[in-house]
Amino acid sequence: MAFPFLFLILLSASLASSKSTLTLDYYAKTCPKFEQIMQDIITPKQMATPTTAAATLRLFFHDCMVSGCDASVLISSNQFNKAERDSDINLSLPGDAFDLVVRAKTALELACPGIVSCSDIVAFATRNLIKQIGGPFYNVPLGRKDGLVSQAAKVEGNLARVNFTMDQIIPMFESKGFTIPDMVALTGGGHTIGFAHCKEFSNRIFGYSKTSEVDPTLNPKFAERLQLLCANFTTNPAMAAFLDPITSNIFDNMFFRNLLRGLGVLASDQALVTDPRTKPLVEKYARDQAVFFKDFAKAMEKLSVYGVKTGKDGEVRHRCDAFNAIKT
């Protein structure tokens, strides 16, 4: 039994060593204008396209939960490889986030070529966008390298689907070292400013069961609004609904308050209210925004260093959608 115990110690030491190479002032000498350049891209982009914050947070989450925060979700597929961004669950990732990363990378390559990783760009942009729309500040240590692998086959089982139950979602997070409060806080943070396409919740508002057209856990008037919004979703698949219909572009605790009133759009969101492991957290965050912000910031700091690549385990890509060398 000594070997497994020793393995866990070595694994823990390896992870700690990896994270210790990240620092808050990583680019102070190599790219001193990093933060200013990033902010010059982020601020006008969010003002011009208010969905940018939600899009970037979702991109960041989808990246980190699959093999760590290494910008592997940005890689485009080629004839040799089907990349993460082309897995079915990632096909709906909004273009606003990809556009922001391209703009930031272009500006940084002009100022300090070959220095700033795409994974650092995504992590830093996510934090600053959250802060810009009212969310909490949290530290983002820098120095990540971009991953060398991006495969669509690695995505399944690492990202929750909209019809997952808490029995499926909680173990998924726990396997990566995240607690139930981490999971609920991260979900609330992403969904207080997020949106979902009608096809992702149409089964809750059209022909739900033999006895009910609509999921009875939905607020009836809200269900009617969703039905009107999504009436033509089969011919217009771009139709979408905000996951927080009250304050969709403000980072706050309204998502949790909505859940308690039957205003949860996704089945997986509504499950947060019905499961005894998560309902107390929904109620706590609905009552106290400061507590939610504190737990969200803590969870985001943990997420931002999950599975990071450093040293020879990664590279600084010349462009964010392609490896520096073609992978065959």
UniProtKB/TrEMBL annotation:
It is found in: Secreted. This is Peroxidase. The keyword Iron applies. The lineage of its organism: Eukaryota, Viridiplantae, Streptophyta, Embryophyta, Tracheophyta. It catalyses: 2 a phenolic donor + H2O2 = 2 a phenolic radical donor + 2 H2O. Residues 1-18 form the signal peptide. It comes from Escallonia rubra. InterPro entries: Haem_peroxidase, Haem_peroxidase_sf, Peroxidase_pln, Peroxidases_AS, Secretory_peroxidase. PANTHER family: PEROXIDASE, PTHR31517. Binds 2 calcium ions per subunit. Binds 1 heme b (iron(II)-protoporphyrin IX) group per subunit. Belongs to the peroxidase family. Classical plant (class III) peroxidase subfamily. The keyword Calcium applies.
